[in-house]
Amino acid sequence: MKLITAIIQPQKLDDVLDALSGIGIHGLTISEANGYGHQRGHTEVFRGTKYDVDILPKVRFEIVSEDVRVDEIITTICDAAGTDTIGDGKVWVIPVESITRVRTRETGAGAI
């Protein structure tokens, strides 16, 4: 099993959720995040005054998946979240040693 973590632009969340639902992924955890990558923020103008915004709002979500679905999930996320501009986000994968469903104490792939 793997833990897939993605950081994307907030305006692309609905597109990603729809795409993941389309491939049968219904369980994930979503949280708000703030940060920056290569783009290092941007400059905004408010009432004639320029402001540098270094920390940008992002959305972070996590999915636990069986190994065989990882590439499909990553491709789906990238296709739905991509705008071909800097700041689209990142996806990374780490191994999951075990998982247990609290309610039933079921473990392994059945607990996903």
UniProtKB/TrEMBL annotation:
It holds the Pfam family P-II. PROSITE patterns: PII_GLNB_CTER, PII_GLNB_DOM. Transmembrane segments: none annotated. SUPFAM superfamilies: GlnB-like. InterPro entries: N-reg_PII, N-reg_PII-like_a/b, N-reg_PII/ATP_PRibTrfase_C, N-reg_PII_CS. Belongs to the P(II) protein family. This is P-II family nitrogen regulator. It comes from Alloscardovia venturai.
